[in-house]
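ok trying again, last paste got cut off:
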Amino acid sequence: MPDKEEITEEEENSAVEAESGVAEAAEAEATGAAEDESAEAGDAEAPEEADAVTAGAAEEEDAPAEEEAAGAKSRAKKPAKKKAAPRKAKRKKAERTDIKVPAVKALTGKDLKLNPAVFEVEAKVGVIHEVVRAEMAARRAGTASSKTRGEVRGGGAKPWRQKGTGRARAGSSRIPHWTGGGVAFGPTPRNFTFKINRKMRSKALRMALSERAREGSIRVVDGLEFDEPRTAAAAALLEGLEVTYPLLVLVGEEDANVALSFRNLPRVDVTDTGDLEVSDVIGARTVLTTSRVIEQLNAIGEGK
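nice, full thing came through this time. structure:
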């Protein structure tokens, strides 16, 4: 039989192992309980984290919408800026010198005596037309010229024989329908003038003056005194008078500076009384003259 001491040692070892196993089991239970508590705590925190994440995403989604709304409000408050028109370069005004305009006094019909034989003649269209046609024809130079086939240099030899070539017959290389040939029935220098009786011309002029006087388009001034030729002074003078263009300015032989001052103005024709033609009076809407020139025109009726 085993000894009592040996049995006692084995029992003690088994008792120690049992106690250690109980202790390990208790520790395991304590560890499991702790793990369960931490798991429950984690489960409790998970919904809170999910809610936080959801709220953050919602805020991120709402942020662009809020920014767009704020931008729209700011755009609505601020009016749209208009594009500035391109600035035009300012031109420097030319410095104008003082223009000395001659003092001119317009005269009415009561202050002048018009010769009825000149300014009260019944107009006849046929007479005026014939005289104007003669005047316009006399102004033509009549220098237009061309060469016929006989005047063009060359073309003396026959280009090819009459028959057997298959081409059209030709006697010269200067025929009108060939390049370099002469002109058939072309213009030649001539005189276009034709005769008009002196009395007929004088009567047509008096008819034209009578028509302008009847219309009230003759402007008579006291005098046109120009110390020197000055176109600017003439233009300033016309601005003060009621004239309609085209304008005819009738001057005398002593009005040389007046003629030089008015001749460069657009739609203004200057004519001396001795060179006055019917076409000049008919082509003007207004006739500007002086009282001295009116006296010269009145003398036309005395020698009719």
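cool. The longest strand covers residues 247-251. Strands lie at 106-107, 218-221, 247-251, 268-272, 286-290.
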